Amino acid sequence: GQQLNQSPQSMFIQEGEDVSMNCTSSSIFNTWLWYKQDPGEGPVLLIALYKAGELTSNGRLTAQFGITRKDSFLNISASIPSDVGIYFCAGVNYGGSQGNLIFGKGTKLSVKP
Amino acid sequence: EAQVTQNPRYLITVTGKKLTVTCSQNMNHEYMSWYRQDPGLGLRQIYYSMNVEVTDKGDVPEGYKVSRKEKRNFPLILESPSPNQTSLYFCASSFYGNTEAFFGQGTRLTVV
Q1: B98–A33: do the CB atoms touch at under 8 Å?
Q2: Fewer Cβ within 10 Å of end Cβ, chain A: N or C?
Q3: Is B18 helix (H, G, I), strand (E, B) or coil?
Q4: Cβ separation of B102 and A45 shorter than 8 Å?
């Protein structure tokens, strides 16, 4: 089936640093989503992208839908301790037979105060 | 408050003892799905439902059953649980097509 390659797998950064993570696929997606999962909780939607080239911000978070429709990135500026968690990208291909979300394996972010 | 509610949050059971994990959403969403999350494997879809009485297999359906008799409920059934089904399970719902899915808080299942 379709797969998303998310990188890096984990990041250890200092508070105040900027963070960048990305997802790539061999398949084209119509929608890219970015989620954050806090320990012991379900994933929460951060940003949704619907058009190739779209750049969307949510506070200190910025995400882009790649022009080729096969990739997306998420940037976090000036990280703070509450940014700790696992970040997942997810793609949707409405032309796919299953119509389901495909998730990356996540980027685990640790922030040192 | 808009939410997806799963029960129970934690469950320890023995091999072969049938169990059901309930999922309910109050957002009138058409689409519901179940995922399992395992270390290093991310979120993998078990089953999904595009509407009442319409269900289909996801990526890892073996050993699971679901039903969608009402729009708001989508229970996950393990007829004969095995230790390899020990995992963290999430229910999710969305208006359609599984875009902008809202997740429940998770059910941590241990099968011994």
Answers
A1: no
A2: C
A3: coil
A4: yes
Low-confidence ranges of chain A (pLDDT < 50): 97-98
Inter-residue contact A5 to A24 (CB < 8 Å) = yes
Residue A100 has what pLDDT? Answer: 67
Closest CA to A27 of A65, A69, A89: A69
Q: Which amino acid is at A62?
A: T
All residues of chain B having their beta carbon less than 8 Å from the beta carbon of residue A98 are 48, 56, 58
Chain B nearest CA to A32, separation (Å)? 9
pLDDT digits (tens, 9 = 90+) for B3-48: 999 999 999 999 999 999 999 999 999 999 999 999 888 899 999 9
Rounded to 5 degrees, what are φ and ψ at A46?
Answer: -100, -55
Q: What are phi and psi of A58, to 5 degrees?
A: -140, 90
User: Which residues in chain B have Cβ-Cβ distances shorter than 8 Å to A106?
Assistant: 42
| A76 within 8 A of B74, measured Cβ to Cβ | no
